[in-house]
Amino acid sequence: MFNALYVDLNSYFASVEQQLHPDLRDRPVGVLPVMAETTCCIAASIQAKRYKVKTGTAVWEARKRCPDIVFVQARPSVYVEMHHRIVAAVESCYPVSAVLSIDEMALDLTGRHQQEKHAFKLAQDIKKAIYREVGEVMHCSIGIAPNRFLAKTASNFRKPDGLELIRPEELPQRLFHLELSDLNGIGPSMERRLNRHGIATVEQLCHASKDALHHAWGSVEGERYYAKLRGEVLPPLPTHRSTVGHSHVLPPALRNDDDALAVLYRLLHKAATRLRHYGYYAGGMGVHVRYRDNTRFRQHTRFAPHGDTLKFNTTLSALWGQRPIDAHEPAKIGVTLFDLAEEKCIARDLFDTEKQHEDLNIAVDQINQRFGNNAIYYGGAHKGRGAAPMRIAFNHIPELRLESDA
Predict the structure, then answer these.
(1) How confident is the model at residue 371, as a pLDDT?
(2) Which residues pair with 285 in a beta bridge?
(3) What confidence tens digit (pLDDT) does each residue in 352-393 have?
(4) Which residues contact 404 (CB under 8 A, 6 or more apart)?
(5) Cis-peptide into 160, omega within 30 deg
(6) Cα 224 from Cα 243, distance rounded (Å)
(7) Whole-angstrom Cα distance, residue 77 to residue 398?
(8) Strand (E) or helix (H) holding 291
(9) Close Cβ partners of 194 (under 8 Å, ≥ 6 residues apart)
(10) Cα 326–chain centre separation
(11) What CATH number does the domain containing 265 carry?
(12) Segments forming the whole domain that contains residue 233
């Protein structure tokens, strides 16, 4: 029985650019956060990947590997709009159960769609719907399996434009050819932990006992992994948003302390807007800076939970003041609000000064949602108002009305 179907768009950002610009089709394309020789690719087209250009490849290295590569600047708002069109195309065939990132979604199969022939036809119909409703360049790989974990694994078996099934009777042998790092949830540090527990292959992982995996993970997650490898469908764990933040690679013209601080204020104000939209207060703030010589500055502080931009500004100024004064040019900056708690769960001080600013925060948020995020802003962000455009993180799909600058 098949319980899950997983859709994974191939080379998504680059494919969108090729779809919208036919002159880029069948050409190696690298998508950059900013058009600068000092940055790296955040996405690569199917053609570029044949030259081993991938996410994280530096521009100079990409040119060396693929002299004919074409670089384009990322357009996050376009990718978000296209994402919604793709979700709609998939849902014209079957309801989407979970959108897991901007280019991945899962469908929980029921009824006749749990049968192999119907699940397979559904996958084919989804591919056709995406081609028809979104574009012929928008390829996806689809995996079908007893649970989401294995369906995602199957979607990676053949790229691009693959369609693979993992049947219950094929488990666990169907997984034995994989590397540990091929499995979702096993990164470099987890792989090292497994190695220390005598697990160096997927076959050894699959043959390990439930208790052994609990010990290896150091938590019940090991037991959950044991079950997922065997095709069991597990209830999702409760989730809680733990941080809200933004980071930005500075273009060469802004790699100085004054402009970097202005962009940091811009990032902070975007984070504060999202925080209030989600209905949270933050109890801490962290700032991080990576300099041109790869040295780093990190500092954080905690405070009574609140959601007031003016108070956040004061905290950011204090953290920034602790940076080394003899550091090199700042190259990448970021700010994170952490220790989040739902606003409705916070007992506020009777004399909390945030109440004086509450109407101001609401007014600023409403104006910017209606007219764009640069319509009104705090003075500290003035020099950075044209910087730090919308970015798309793996687990965060921006809401255009909150984060678009248009």
Answers:
(1) 67
(2) 301, 337
(3) 555 567 767 667 667 666 766 666 666 666 555 556 555 555
(4) 77, 372, 373, 390, 398
(5) yes
(6) 25
(7) 8
(8) strand 280-291
(9) 180, 186, 200, 205, 216
(10) 34
(11) 3.30.1490.100
(12) 171-239
For every residue of 230-270, DSSP letters joined together read TT---PPPP-----EEEEEEPPGGG-SHHHHHHHHHHHHHH
Q: Which of 209, 239, 269 is a domain's end point?
A: 239
> What average pLDDT is seen over the chain?
89
The two tokens of residue 253 are 């013209």
385 and 279 co-located in one domain: yes
Helix (H, G, I), strand (E, B) or coil at 336: strand
Phi, psi angle pair for 332, to nearest 5°? -140, 135
Cα atoms in the 13 Å half-sphere on the side-chain side of 374: 14
Sort strands 140-145 and 163-165 into parallel, antiparallel or unpaired. Answer: parallel
Strands 43-44 and 29-32: antiparallel
Query: Are 142 and 10 found together in one domain?
Result: yes
SS3 state of residue 295: coil
Quote the tokens at residue 17: 């650019």
292-332 pLDDT, tens per residue? Answer: 998 999 999 999 899 999 999 999 999 999 999 888 899 99
| Token pair belonging to 352 | 């909390």
The strand pairing partners of 298, in sequence order, are 288
Q: What does the DSSP assignment read for 148-168?
A: HHHHHHHHTTSTTT-EEE--G
Helix (H, G, I), strand (E, B) or coil at 110: coil
260: tokens are: 């970097």
Q: Encode pLDDT of 234-266 as tens digits.
A: 987 776 678 999 998 888 889 999 999 999 999
The pairs formed by 385-390 with CB atoms below 8 angstroms and a separation of 24 or more are: 385/262, 385/266, 387/248, 387/250, 387/251, 387/254, 387/259, 387/262, 387/263, 387/266, 388/246, 388/248, 388/263, 388/266, 388/267, 388/270, 389/76, 390/76, 390/77, 390/80
3-class DSSP assignment, residue 143? strand
* Cβ atoms of residues 53 and 44 within 8 Å: yes
Cα gap 354→335, rounded to integer Å: 21
Angle of CA points 32, 34, 40, to nearest 5° = 45
Instruction: Say whether both 42 and 136 belong to one domain.
Output: yes
**Residue 363: HSE in the Cβ half-sphere, 13 Å Cα cutoff:** 8
